[in-house]
Design the sequence.
């Protein structure tokens, strides 16, 4: 089993490399490491009234003492993405301040208060101070094929792989080529083409040197197009898209710019119509009369798809579509969602904003 202090040191070296690159607006007590982004979070337990008015008052007074303006405070249960056993209840204190000079000192002081209060009721609680508008919280989106960025990534792929094999072969878990963007587009909507090298959490190396060598190799490749490529080295590992039980509960429920799989009751409609729509019914295994391979089909009402065959509409209204073995003259194409139900993405500028609790 690895030494705990050595493991912490490895984490710290890697985390410091990330902090130098991105800047740090998340502080936790000394000798602790913030949960790496992306992380899972949910409301934390208040632990039998631990975070009561008296404790909140002491925290607010401490923030005043260290000249940190209060924005919000809540209790969250944070864990590494897909690793629920790392859950830890944390008092997250938000501020809009950008001067982090006294944040570490303040975090340590507040943690001392919280640690004693938690020990009295036999539990633990972490503390974190953050600026939600400055913390590293980028999300990935795919690179579109046949674009300048795609061509540049194709040229440097072998170079990146060679440098990884040379500098951190036993630590690298995967290499990705993404556009990276802040999770709240209203804060920063820039999509930055980025090479992301994931290494096993706890890996030890001179990450600033490794990063510099890989960056120099990338910059040595000649591009016809003017493309700026960023480089990130992040702790991370691969998680299967589904576990043995088939669940994907630890993954995002919604992916930007990607239509979710249709479910019972979803909007469907004929491709030719911009006014008609209906609901997706049950999925069934249809066995053709007279034998043949079963086909997976879904049920819906006749009126939902009838307008998809305007030339045969009168006949279909009288005899149905393909009933009793009748040959169908035109195959009706169905879209999901129905064309009349397709709406523009939510452009609410306040989406993702963080405010003070009332």
Sequence:
């Amino acid at each position: 089993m690895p030494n705990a202090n050595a493991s912490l040191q490895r984490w710290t070296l890697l985390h410091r490399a990330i902090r130098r690159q991105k800047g740090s607006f998340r502080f936790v007590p000394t000798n602790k490491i913030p949960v790496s982004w992306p992380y899972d979070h949910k409301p934390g337990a208040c632990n039998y009234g631990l975070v009561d008015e008296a404790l909140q008052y002491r925290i607010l007074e401490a923030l005043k003492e260290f000249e940190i303006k209060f924005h919000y405070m809540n209790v969250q249960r944070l864990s590494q993405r897909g690793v629920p056993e790392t859950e830890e209840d944390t008092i997250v204190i938000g501020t809009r301040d950008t001067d982090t000079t006294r944040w570490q000192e303040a975090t340590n002081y507040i943690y001392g208060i919280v640690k004693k209060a938690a020990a009295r009721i036999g539990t633990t609680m972490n503390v974190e101070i953050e600026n939600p508008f400055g913390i590293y919280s980028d999300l990935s989106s795919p690179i579109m094929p046949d674009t300048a960025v795609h061509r540049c990534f194709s040229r440097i792929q072998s170079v990146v792989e060679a440098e990884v094999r040379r500098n951190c072969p036993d630590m690298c878990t995967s290499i990705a080529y993404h556009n990276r963007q802040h999770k709240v587009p209203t804060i920063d909507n820039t999509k930055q083409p980025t090479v992301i090298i994931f290494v096993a959490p706890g890996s030890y190396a001179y990450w600033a040197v490794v990063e510099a060598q890989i960056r120099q190799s990338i910059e040595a490749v000649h591009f016809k197009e003017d493309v700026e490529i960023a480089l990130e080295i992040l702790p991370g590992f691969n998680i299967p898209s589904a576990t043995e039980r088939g669940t994907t509960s630890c993954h995002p429920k919604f992916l930007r710019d990607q239509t979710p799989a249709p479910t019972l009751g979803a909007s469907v409609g004929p491709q030719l119509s911009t006014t008609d729509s209906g609901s997706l019914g049950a999925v069934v295994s249809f066995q053709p009369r007279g034998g043949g391979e079963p086909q997976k089909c879904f049920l819906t009402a006749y009126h939902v798809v009838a307008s998809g065959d305007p030339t045969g509409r009168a006949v279909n209204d009288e005899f149905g579509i393909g009933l009793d073995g009748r040959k169908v003259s035109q195959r009706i194409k169905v879209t999901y969602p129905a064309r009349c139900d397709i709406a523009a993405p939510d452009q609410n500028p306040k989406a993702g904003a963080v405010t003070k609790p009332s």
